[in-house]
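JOB MANIFEST
job_type = single_chain_structure
chain_count = 1
residues = 365
[input]
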Amino acid sequence: MESLQISREMNRDQVGIKRIGIYVPDEIKDSKYIGEESGISEDIVQQKFGIRQIHKAGKKENVSDMGVKAAKKALMDFNPEKLDLVVYCGSEYKDYYLFNCAAKIQHEIGAKNANAFEIHSLCSAGVYSLKVLKSMMLQDEKLRYVLLVSSSKEADLINYKNTRTRFMFNFGDGAAAVLLEKGLNENVILETHMITDGSFAEDVGVMGIGCKNFHKFEKMKYEDRFLDVADIRSMKERLDPITLNNFVTVIEKSAEKSGYKKHEINFIAPIFMKRSILNNILSYFQLNEENSFVLENYGHCQSADSFISLSEGEKLGRIKEGDIAVLFGAGTGYTWAATTVKWGKIKVMEKTEIKQSDQEVILCD
C-alpha cells in the first residue's frame, strides 16, 4: 500500500508542562507550636497528623501576593506578554470576599495580552484544572501559553482549639504556578479521572459567612469565621470506608485512560496526607516513598500540593525521563481527582513513514 510522508514542527494535539514555580513564606510554625496551640502532644502531631512544620504568611502577605511570586518563578525568563490565559485554581479564601484573584495576578505579572478566569473545586482543583485547560487549549487555536496558579492562606481559617477540625491542623500557606504550552513535547499531560460524592457537600465550611447567614453578620461569633465541621462523627463514619479506595481508583483510572497499567506508574505526586496513608496507596501500585514525596515540611497548601510534590520529586531525582507520573488530590465536598503526566521529552518523528490505513502519527520515546 502506498505510503505517506508526514512532517510537522510540533505535535499540536498535546499540552506539556513547561515549568513549575513554587513559593512558600519564610515563617515556620512547627509541630511543637501546633501541639502547644491545640493541646495535643508534639509526638502525636508528627506521627498521627504527619506534620513537622507548615509555612505561614504574614498579615500583609495576601493570597494574590503568593500567587504572583509563584507565577514569576514559573515564568522566569518567559515573556509574560506571550501568555494567552491566566487561570487561578487556589483557595476561595482570597484577598477579599468576592474577588477576581486571576485578574489581579494577570495584572501584577504583566500578562497584558492574556485573559483571566478562575476554577474552583477546593483541594482537587489543581489536578482537575490540568484537564480543563488542556481541553481548552486543544480546542482553541489561539491558546498556546497558559499559566495556572494555585495559592492558599487557609491556615488563617484554622482554630487549633476546635477538635472537630483537627484533621485540618496540617493546613499551611503557599502557592504553585504551572506554565503550560501547546505542542510542547515534554512533560505531556495525559488523562484525568474524578469521583464526586456530593453527600459531603455541607460537612465542611466557614459556617458563619455566606448568603445563608448574610443577615446574621453583625451577630457573628468570632469562632464562626473559621473552618468548621458540621458533624465530625458522621463525616468520619461515611468518609473512612471509601476514601482510600477512591484515591486508588482515580489514580488507576487516570493511568488506564492514558494507556498505562497500574504497574507502569513510576511516581505519585500526592495531596498532603500522613505517611501511613500514602504508603498504603504506594504499596497498591508496587511503589515506595522513593517514588513519591511526603509533604511533612510543607503542610497542606490546598490544590498546590501535587505540584509541590512533583517539583520536589524532580529535584530529588525521583522522576526520570520517560516516567509516568500521576498527580492526585481530594477536596471537601467531596471530590477525588488524578491526572497522569508523561515526564521528560518525547521525540517526534518529523518525517515518519506510515501507511494510509494507519490512524495516528507514530511517536517514539
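[summary]
The longest strand covers residues 186-196.
The domain at 15-186 is CATH 3.40.47.10 (Peroxisomal Thiolase; Chain A, domain 1).
exit_status = 0
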